């Protein structure tokens, strides 16, 4: 089955908690001589020549004359120098430059300063001030001010969560020409119906924008929709091309999906060999679903994927990378002794890991392992099995496997459900 990249997953954010401000491009505009334009241009020329210290001095002089763009650029250069020489006073100086640019009406300075006030590592964390600065920037049509404000509202960072407002500000951040991330998040919220009713057309319009702006994740999600129209050869070709482009840009779930398409297009040895190469690329790149698919090929005896005995290690690796279905397959191999010794405790551990990741089938496996352990020691039992089933129902109320496990728990006279490796 083609893996759905980010539909229903958490939004992507530019400034996760505990990270310093992201790098931002220097302002490319020229300004009039009466506002420190000579030193501004001198600073730009010094940068081109690779003379960062001279450039910083020029921007500082221009900033002192009231050129707010120079204040912003001085802040960026102090950031860069702080990264290289670890002079902590430069971080304070950078923030002061950004604050001055913001107070002078240059809104990119507000966005940059807000990044410091959001960061727990900055030493000056002030979330209410960050919210104020980002609102100023957004109201002045600074697109990334809207996007960063949306992040704070979505996460409840310094304020109550407000998903409706977050969706609105992501849209503003996209439509005002901001970064691809704003468009991606706007599309994801529209498609999932987060912060408002689902809007499929709007969602894919924002995905298109994000893809064109360079978001590999958006391109991969678009590809998913195209290849699902496999009755239309043109749509399928577009989707396959988008997957390849996203894979080449390092989006590992796209590489995994390309492998699936290769398998489906040619079920023979050549197709499986190509699929194994793409699954391995995804797995090595940190995508757990790639490890799971590679493990399935290995267990089927496809030598390009590895030896049959390698399957368990690939499932374990996929589980550790966050693939709940890999956890299920690892747990199953231990539970039934499928090319591994029967170890109920170990199987329960892998099933539990998958269940906690969000895989309902793993919860069903955990229930059976807990039940059978209860026949041996106090680590399991019917009560614990029932709790695992309840946990799984919260994840997927319609899971057929959980139905079978529930029937078995209720009757205990019937044959236990037959578990099979997850090959979807």
Architecture overview:
Helix content is 67%, strand content 0%. The chain has 424 residues and is mainly α. Helix 1 runs antiparallel to helix 2. The radius of gyration is 27 Å and the shape is elongated. It has helices at 37-48, 52-64, 68-85, 88-103, 107-118, 127-139, 143-155, 163-175, 180-192, 200-212, 216-228, 233-248, 252-265, 269-284, 288-299, 310-320, 324-336, 344-357, 360-374, 382-395, 400-411.
Helix-and-strand structural type: mainly alpha
The rounded distance between the terminal residues' Cα atoms is 5 Å
Number of beta-strand segments = 0
Portion in beta strands? under 5%
Largest sheet, in brief, is:
none
**What is the H/E string?**
HHHHHHHHHHHHHHHHHHHHH
Share of residues in helices: 55-70%
Q: Give the overall pLDDT as a whole number.
A: 86
Count of helix runs: 21
Uncertain runs with pLDDT below 50, 5 residues or more?
Answer: 4-10, 13-24, 28-34
Radius of gyration over all CA atoms, rounded: 27 Å
Overall spatial form? elongated
